[in-house]
């Protein structure tokens, strides 16, 4: 290089060094880190209304050791759970093709689409070893953020590795694949490889009942407000039902024959708490109480709970509409009150 060009280059470098130094300092000070991790904003990853159709069955386990607590110190969780479970009421909803949606824009980092769906409570541990997520995908959002979507329907994943996805873009359909006993989407969030509770963000201290900053978009906060308990489904049947049958969507009849051997009213809830008491009633078409069952106080917490009561036919049932009523009583703030109600109807013809 000619001498005058070398000299010119040296002069330009000396002139630019201060500016480059400032730019580097500014870049480093603004680089995303733990303090800036909440910059990601998450949309709802399922296309269903929370609280009326979908429910949050399990949250991230906040206990650093043995035991399990969700972010409120409640019990909607199990030991070691790493995500948020958005569940459908029962498997009959699988026929409606409830969509899984991208919670934020990003690039697909990996997918799986060939795991067979199974019946509720019938997954085979040996068959799904190392594939407990079932069908699903991971999306890389940049700056250390990733989201994971699990238990989707076989063959429903619509994107491939390397695809760019937009916020709320359909990714597939909720299914029953992998290690799951009921239909739901397991939604996981990680920052720099570590599990993040989306209800608290990255700055929250370990444990439950701590301060944090939600990663959910602000317009979702009301719908995603914590519900310690909820009704999943209820109905009438003429047989003694099992939990797996109810989760499968069976034993919910709008009409039964007057010669049915039994009349059974059942209810499935989430979040039964110690000390809760249940009442089930069946009302005859003329308004009289055909049956009333008063349960004993619950001895321990149950993430899922299923109960029923019924009556055997002594003669053909009277024609008309029978009504099942369920109430769950709980002591809250020193006062006993009804915290859950459900009603179901069946017509005898």
Describe the protein's architecture and organization.
By secondary structure, the protein is mainly beta. It folds into 2 domains: 189 residues, Glucose Permease (Domain IIA) (Distorted Sandwich); 119 residues, Immunoglobulins (Immunoglobulin-like, Sandwich). Helices cover 9% and strands 35% of the residues. The protein starts with a helix and ends with a strand. The N terminus is likely disordered.
Short description:
By secondary structure, this protein is mainly beta. The protein folds into two domains: 39-227, Glucose Permease (Domain IIA) (Distorted Sandwich); 230-348, Sandwich (Immunoglobulin-like), CATH 2.60.40.10.
List the helices and strands and how they pair.
Blueprint: H1 3-30, E1 55-58, E2 84-87, E3 99-101, E4 106-112, E5 135-142, E6 145-152, E7 164-165, E8 170-173, E9 184-191, E10 194-195, E11 230-237, H2 243-247, E12 255-256, E13 262-272, E14 277-283, E15 289-294, E16 302-312, E17 320-332, E18 335-348
Parallel strand pairs: 12-18
Antiparallel strand pairs: 1-2, 2-9, 3-8, 4-5, 4-7, 5-6, 6-9, 9-10, 11-13, 13-16, 14-15, 14-17, 17-18
Main beta sheet strand tally, sense and closure: 8 strands, antiparallel
Q: How many structural domains can be distinguished in the coordinates?
A: 2
Beta-strand proportion: 25-35%
Could you say which overall geometry the principal axes of the C-alpha atoms support? globular
End-to-end distance, in Å?
101 Å
Helix content class:
under 10%
Low-confidence stretches: 1-38
Predict the CATH topology of the largest domain: Glucose Permease (Domain IIA)
- Shape-level CATH architecture of the largest domain: Distorted Sandwich
Provide the gyration radius in Å. Answer: 27 Å
Q: In terms of structural class, how would the helical and strand content be classed?
A: mainly beta
Rounded mean pLDDT is 89
What is the H/E order?
HEEEEEEEEEEEHEEEEEEE
Going by CATH, what is the homologous superfamily of the largest domain? Glucose Permease (Domain IIA)
Counting DSSP E segments of at least 2 residues, the number of strands comes to: 18
Query: DSSP helix count?
Result: 2
């Amino acid at each position: 290089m000619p001498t005058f060009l070398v000299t010119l280059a040296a002069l330009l470098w000396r002139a630019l060094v201060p500016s480059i130094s400032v730019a580097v300092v500014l870049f480093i000070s603004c680089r995303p880190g733990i303090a800036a991790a909440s910059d990601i904003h998450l949309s709802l990853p399922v296309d269903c209304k929370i609280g009326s159709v979908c429910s949050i069955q399990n949250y991230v386990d906040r206990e650093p050791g043995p035991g399990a607590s969700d972010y409120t110190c409640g019990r909607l969780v199990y030991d070691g759970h790493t995500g948020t479970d958005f569940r459908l009421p029962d498997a009959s909803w699988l026929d409606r093709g409830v969509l899984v949606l991208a919670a934020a824009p990003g690039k697909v980092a990996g997918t799986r689409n060939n795991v067979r769906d199974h019946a509720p409570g019938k997954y085979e541990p040996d068959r799904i070893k190392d594939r407990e997520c079932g069908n699903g995908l991971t999306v890389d959002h940049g700056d250390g953020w990733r989201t994971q979507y699990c238990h989707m329907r076989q063959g429903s994943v619509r994107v491939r590795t390397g695809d760019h996805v937009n916020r709320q873009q359909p990714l597939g359909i909720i299914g029953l694949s992998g290690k799951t006993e009921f239909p739901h989407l397991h939604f996981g969030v990680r920052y720099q490889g570590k599990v993040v509770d989306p209800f608290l963000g990255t700055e929250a201290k370990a444990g439950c009942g701590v301060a944090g900053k939600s990663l959910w978009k602000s317009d979702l906060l009301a719908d995603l407000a914590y519900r310690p308990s909820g009704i999943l489904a209820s109905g009438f049947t003429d047989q003694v039902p099992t939990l797996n049958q109810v989760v499968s969507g069976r034993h919910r009849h709008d009409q039964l024959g007057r010669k049915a051997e039994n009349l059974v009213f059942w209810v499935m809830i989430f979040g039964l708490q110690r000390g809760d008491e249940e009442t089930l009633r069946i009302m005859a078409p003329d308004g009289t109480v055909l049956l009333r069952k008063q349960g004993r106080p619950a001895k321990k917490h149950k993430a899922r709970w299923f109960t029923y009561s019924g009556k055997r036919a002594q003669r053909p049932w009277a024609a008309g509409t029978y009504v099942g009523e369920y109430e769950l009583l709980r002591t809250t703030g020193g006062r006993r009150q009804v915290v859950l109600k459900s009603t179901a109807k069946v017509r005898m013809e």
